[in-house]
Amino acid sequence: MADSIGARIRYRRLRRGGMTQTVLAGLAGVSQSYISQVEAGRRVVDRRSTLVGIAAALQVTVADLLDQPGDPTDPAKAGAADAVPAIWAALIEIEEGERRTPSHSIGELTAAIEQSAALRLRANHAAMAPLLPGLLLDAAGYGGTMLAQVAYQTSTCLRHIGYRHLALNAAKVALAAAQETESPAWIGATRFTCTQSLPMEAPELAARVADRALVDLQSTAAAQDVRQVLGQLHLAAAFTSAVAGRQDDARSHLAEADREALVAFIRAERAAPRLFAMNPIARDSVVAMVRRAQRRSISEDLRVLARRFGIEVYA
Predict the structure, then answer these.
(1) pLDDT (tens digit, 9 = 90+) per residue, 1-24?
(2) Domain 1-69 belongs in CATH node 1.10.260.40
(3) Cα–Cα dist 232/187, whole Å
(4) What is the 3-state secondary structure (H, E, C) of the chain?
(5) 209 near 250, Cβ under 8 Å?
(6) Sign of CA pseudo-dihedral 10, 16, 22, 27
(7) Across residues 246-264, what is the average pLDDT?
(8) Do residues 34 and 43 make contact, with C-beta atoms less than 8 angstroms apart?
(9) For the chain, domain boundaries
(10) Which of 122, 172, 209, 224 is 20–30 Å from 188 (CA)?
(11) Nearest Cα to 162, choosing from 60, 272, 295, 284?
């Protein structure tokens, strides 16, 4: 059927500058033959995690792949959109250099930022978006890391509800605030969200932005908080390189992202082995890493993590 999910995946893939099935499969953590069968309608995507992985690789939402992006009955999206004009006004005020006296103490604002972060992790944009105008204006009054955090969250929220152009504005506000703090980790994180917010029609630009961010972070790459950002940037660079037709660069960045993820997973497993083994997201990620590594070689560290989840690894 022309309107099947497989057809929509193929359409979105080809819109990414002719991204190949192999690159999409690598970014999504599945095999090329799996993508081929799905696109041909011979196989269904029966796992939510796989659908999420494919959507992330294509930089679209799951709703886009399910042909539900413009559903006017979606209360979450409609509720979030209602707050966009006020968010936009707050961003303009900050970009113009205006600063209000914060209406909340640092402690109160910190708690509110944590609440917004928790809503972001649950993708509850309808509850998160109305908080952002006030958070932005208060955070601008304090500046520094607080503004970087709030603007970062704002960019993520706007991008997910379909306002990519405003997401880029918020990302630039976040980057400017991070640069004032001279924190390599926050500069890297905000550059990552800048890359994510660039127009999909400008893959070469996005690839260059991601590459520059990685180069700038190399001098502080040994720091743990910076390493966490490096993995995200390598993933962004892998996608943008793939879309730009730079397949070798995409594979190289994907390998580096896997390497950073492996370091993080080893640290998490050592800190809380039982909780780590019970985490379904971690398990899905390790499965994807094993699938990709089988095309090259599987390290002993990855074999150990795979065994924690009962994942069979063949030589």
Answers:
(1) 334 788 889 888 887 767 888 888
(2) yes
(3) 13
(4) CCCCHHHHHHHHHHHCCCCCHHHHHHHHCCCHHHHHHHHCCCCCCCCHHHHHHHHHHHCCCHHHHCCCCCCCCCHHHHHHHHCHHHHHHHHHHHHCCCCCCCCCCHHHHHHHHHHHHHHHHCCCHHHHHHHHHHHHHHHHHHCHHHHHHHHHHHHHHHHHCCCHHHHHHHHHHHHHHHHHHCCHHHHHHHHHHHHHHCCCCCHHHHHHHHHHHHHHHHHHCCCHHHHHHHHHHHHHHHHHHHHCCCHHHHHHHHHHHHHHHHHHHHHHHHHCHHHHHCCHHHHHHHHHHHHHHCCCCCCHHHHHHHHHCCCCCCC
(5) no
(6) negative
(7) 74
(8) yes
(9) 1-69, 71-197, 220-315
(10) 122
(11) 60
For residue 261, CA distances in Å to 56, 177, 185 come to: 16, 27, 16
Q: What is the 3-state secondary structure (H, E, C) of 28-58?
A: HCCCHHHHHHHHCCCCCCCCHHHHHHHHHHH
Q: Which amino acid is at 273?
A: P
The owner of tokens 């005020």 is 93
For 225-235, what is each residue's pLDDT tens digit? 676 677 777 77
